[in-house]
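Thread: "does anyone have the structure for this chain?"

Original post by V.I.:
We have the sequence but no experimental structure in hand. Need at least a predicted one for the grant figures.
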Amino acid sequence: MMSQGMPLALPTARQPVLDGFHPAVIGFWAILAAMLFNITLCFLNTKHMMAAGSTQVIAIEMAILAVGLLAARNLVGEGAVRLSAVAVACLLALKLINSDLDLKIVHDLAIILVFYLLGRVCPVPLAGRLVGVLLVLVIAIGLVEWLLPTVFESMFDIWGYYLDKGSLDASTVNYSNTKLFVSGQRSADAGRTLLPAVFGIHRISSIFLEPVSLGNFAIICLAWLLSMPPRSAGMRLTMAMAVGLCVVFPDSRFAAAACVMMVLYRMTPFHRSPAVAFLLPVAAVIGLVIYGGQGHDIGIAPRLLDDDFSGRLLFSGQLLSSWSWRQWLGLAASPIYTADTGYAYAIVNMGLPLAIALWFAFAMTPVASRQGQTMRGMIALYITLSLCVGASVFSIKTAALCWFLYGVTTQVPKLVRERASSLGLAVAAQT
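Reply from O.Q.:
Generated one for you, tokens below.
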């Protein structure tokens, strides 16, 4: 058997040199680019070295996807080609009927396919190094943001960056009077939930610039840890502590709850079940519709009353329960914005039949490795929970890493050893 998690030995002189143009290496750097380009643009915008706007953000994301697709062009199987062709054809047909359909969903689905394919050819040790590098980088920048806030804000005017790229309206009031994101601080009344005596009301964002993505990053790293734990007990403990810090930094109540549920789910005999993975979001949507229908007054448009987990759950349920069959099939736009509810965003822009078909392909496609089966269950739980309160699972900042790591875990162990050997990465035997 193969080793899991971090590499246990360094390449020897007799092993081949790592090819910088190998898809696995390109995937490594593409992940770093996807996670770091926003903070880089923010720095350049703050220092007036370049005016950063939505055009630059879109161009960089498309460039990352293009490079990834070019590297993965020979990795696409016939099944993936057929499914992608059908999905694009369905979306274009829906666009002809529903002009308000947001074709950004094609970009969101492309992230999943491209980074999953790149992960499929990446050796586990290289992926383990990537997770380790990211955790160190996220914690290091987070510590600067916490301990040296004035220095951090002089380098990263997050508020100004989001205004310039159009993600914040110019009329938005900056109640915190800082350069952090709009949710970069808890209100004085609400306060932090996790270690308020240590961090005050500050919600640390680190390289992600906003707290939600840092919480999602922590969940993804935990999913990796539960699926591909390092062989060393010390390394497992260190990584678990790092993940915990990434939950505490942004005071992510959602991430804390999701991590607890993920650990409990991992302990059940159903965490590798494809049927359970498929049914999780189905049950969530049904539950939201029932919940929202009970609390929704007919004739009154749904609206977000409280911007917290319970408030978003209620809004999500009310929005879904207020739809006609045309919204469910993607044939008409939602009368209410869908940015704060991921299920509504996905369904109204794909149509329920296509959404079910794509999720079925993810959940029910056979996975040879037990690690991949576990990772599939962890991702299914993460997406099921996250879509209840937002669409952040589609952001390239964390989605690229999520699907890349899933691709890594789905490899057949023998194939992993062969690829690791060809890249000059030592893989020790696993008991």
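V.I.: this helps a lot. The two ends are 7 Å apart (CA to CA).
O.Q.: and Residues 251 and 402 are 21 Å apart (CA to CA).
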